[in-house]
Structures are given as structure tokens and as C-alpha cells.
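pinning this so it doesn't scroll away 📌
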Amino acid sequence: MHSLNTLKRDFLEHLEIEKGRSLKTIENYERYLNSFLNFLKKDAPEDITDLSVREYRLWLNRQTMGNNRATGQTLSKKTQNYYLIAIRAFLKYLARQEIKTLPAERIELAKVTQRQLDLITRGELERLLNSPNGKELKDLRDKAILELLFSTGLRVSELCSLTSDIDLSNDELSIRGKGGKIRVVFLSEDAQNSVKEYLKNRKDMSEALFVKIGSENKKGDDNSLEPLRRRSVERIVKYHAIKSGISKKVTPHVLRHMFATDLLGNGADLRAVQMLLGHANIGTTQIYTHVTDKQLHDVHKKFHNKRKF
């Protein structure tokens, strides 16, 4: 007889080896599954039933976590769905192993409201991109980061993985994204020039494309600089948003949103934008369409309230 905890470990190893999921994704799945199994307090696959899942969902719906504890706010439906998605994936794995348990399709996700995009105006975007206007290496680096994020729609993790031997002889770049999938992104002339100028002024031997400079570098070795991590890139974007007088919260992901809405708003095909963003499901890309459909705007302007008397 297989115990659920043993099967959970096998499932996580399957995600890492066969599926090629990132360690961060595996950590999240482990956390979600631990929550469910701790609630279940049983260790047999057949103990996962409609009733046990329903009771867990009620429990989950009443939980407060993190910063919400002080306010008494419960977990959002979107966050609850992360737990349910992990359980469904686990059940699908058990089914493939021919282990008797609850069918994954019996678990329905909670209905969530349509996702709201965090966007800035075109004018705010221009101010943000022009914020790093000095000649110091840090300014050149920040300029290259902002231009590259907007030009390519890269995720922060993808940006941080770039190396200093990047090929800038043409305007395209191969990126290894989520799940180890390779996709091609394209650099604008501004992005190419910004990265070239930044690299031309680099004097160190570090492998990473974007590194900590000056007081940011805890190593204190100007020849071997620390690579920038996610948090550092987020701080850089936030700093320049504030400097540009933008009151909204601006993150690297906002620039990814702007990349997508810019393409769709100018007539790009939804499927092409899906490929450029590296979305596995086109439904994820469709969140951008309701704010970018120029044709609907033009139709409304042309035909609305055109009374003939």
C-alpha cells in the first residue's frame, strides 16, 4: 500500500525530472499539497474523497494568511485555486500510476473575477524609459534593463538569467522560459543600443549581464560583481517610476503588460503575442484584449449616436 506522503514525494520528483518544472514551482506545489495532507490527517489515496475535498475547501475559504491576519481578510479565490490546481495535478499523477483515488475532474476551481491589468499611460512609459539619463555605469545598466523589459516582454527571472556574452549582432534572442521551453524574443533598436552602451562601459569579468554596481555589490570586488536578482530588478524599476513622478505601483511585470498591450493595440495577432510572451495557454494572453481592441473603439466612434432626423 502506497502512503500519500510517499506518493507526494514521487510526484514532486516527477515534476522536477520528467516535467522539468522549476525548483520554485516544485516548492509551491509541495507547500499546497502539505496543507491539504495535513488537513486530511489520513495517508491512503482512497481517503481523498468528494467530502474530504469539500471540507478542505470550506476550511481554506476561511483562512487568513500573511498580511491579511491583522485585517481578517480571507484568502482570495485566485489564491485558493492555486491549492486546488496542485491537488488536481497530484490526482492526475496518481491516476496515471493506476492508483485508486478521487478523479481529478471532480475538483472544480472557484469562480474568479476577471483579472485587472496594472497599466501605465504611454506618457508615463516614456518618462520611465527616459529616467536613467546619466552616463554612470548604474544609469546605463538601468536604462538597458528598462528598454529590454519593454522591448521583449521578458519575465524578471528570464532577464536575470541573461549572460554578458549576449549576441547583439542581430535583433533576436533565444530565451529559456517556464518549464525549460525555448522561445525567441526581439530587441528594438533602442534596447540593442542601450545594452551595447552598458556593456561597452563594463570593466569586470562577471558572467551575468546585469550586475550589482558600487555600494550594491556586497563582495567589494570590482572585477567580480554579483548578479542582479529579482528583488533588485524590482527595486530598480520602482526607483525610476517614483523618479518619473508615476504614482501607480510599477513593477517589471507592468512592463510585460505594456509590451503585450502595445503589440495588440497596434494590430498584432493574439497567437503571435502568446508565443512572444511564452504563454502555454492562449487564454492567459486573452486578458489583454479587452483593453487593446482599437477596432471596437473605432466602430463606437463611427456609429454611436449618429441619429438622422
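📌 and the second one:
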Amino acid sequence: MISRGLALRVARHRRLLATACAAIGAGSALLALRPSGPPTREVLTAARDLPSGTALTRSDVQRRTLPTSVVPAGTLDDATGRTLAGPVRRGEPLTDARVVDGNLLRGLPDGTVAAPVRITDADAARLVRPGDRVDILAVPTAPTADDSDLGPPPDTRADLPRALPGVPSRARLVVTSVPVIAVPRPEPDTTSPQGALIVIATDRAQATTIAAAGPHLSITINDTG
């Protein structure tokens, strides 16, 4: 039962109470009518700027919530152990197009083969990343003293000096502008032959030409992906 004093106080302030109730009701209506935020989705992104060829670890990635409208197709649920095919900026969503696929030749024309090529200069090979296009050159060894009676090579002009024993002759272009599809990293604490491997995509005829070019191969990078 409401006391007489409380009833009098309510009666004196009923206008104020009515105004407050009306304001609360209007605010609730506005909140109900206000459109909700855009739909979002949690995606895997780069935790920092990452160079091409990075073998991703857990510390290289992080999850972020982004509006669904800006999430690209092909986002990855797990990228640990995958290798980046190109550089990635911090915060960029990681997609299947950003990593080297398990099938190196997927998406390439029929008849393409993956050709491992050992580059003599390992430091030069480490500059290459998947997606680069390179020229491959053969650096033949110069004739030795035992070869002096064989005469000059067929394409040597008389006005050019002969190569001296022990001095490499001019490099020869073997194939040009072939895409690099993988750069295998040597296992730690293992002994490997001189040089370093890269894997290129080429046709069978070019692969045969490279195989016959000799053991001393060099590269120049003429385009990057």
C-alpha cells in the first residue's frame, strides 16, 4: 500500500516522470530502428610485412575481423607451413593466390614442366623469389692447355682475342624470361652440392636445352611478379 506522503510526491512530479518515461520510450524506439553494423568475418592476415618466399609460421599470421564486403575470395583457414608466392603487407588477408600451391604446375599451360636448375652462385639464387622471371645463362669453362690444338670455336671471329686457359669465356643465353615457381630452401646442417636450386616452369624442349648447357649456370632477373 502506497503511503500518503509518497503519493503526494508522485503527484507533484508526475509531469516530470511522464516526460522521462516518454524520453526512454523514444530512445528505445530509435535503438530498435537503427540499422545494425555490416556483417563481419574473421580471416587470417599477415602479422607484419612479409617478403616473397617466406615459409609461414604461427608468428607470421594473426586473425582479424573484417567487414564481409572487403574479404577477398580464397581466404585461408590455416597457412602454417605454406610459402608465399609474393610479398604481403601487414594486415593483408592471406588467400590461396598468395601462396605456392602444392601442385607447382596448377594453372599453367598443358605441356609445361617443372625443371629444377642448379645455379652456380648460391647467393644469386637466394635473390630469386617465386613469381620472378629469369634468364638462364651457361658459363662455359675456358679451354685448357690440352685444348690448344683444337682451334677456336666456330662462332669466334678472328678479330676477337682467344680465351686464355683458366679464364671463363663469354656466357651464352640458354633460355629467357622463364617463370620461377619455387626456390627450395636447403635443410639446415646438411651438406649440399655447390650452388643452389631454383625450379622454373618451361616446356620440354627448353628443359632439354638447359640440361645440355653444362654444369655452370647463372641467372639474371628480368621481371618480377
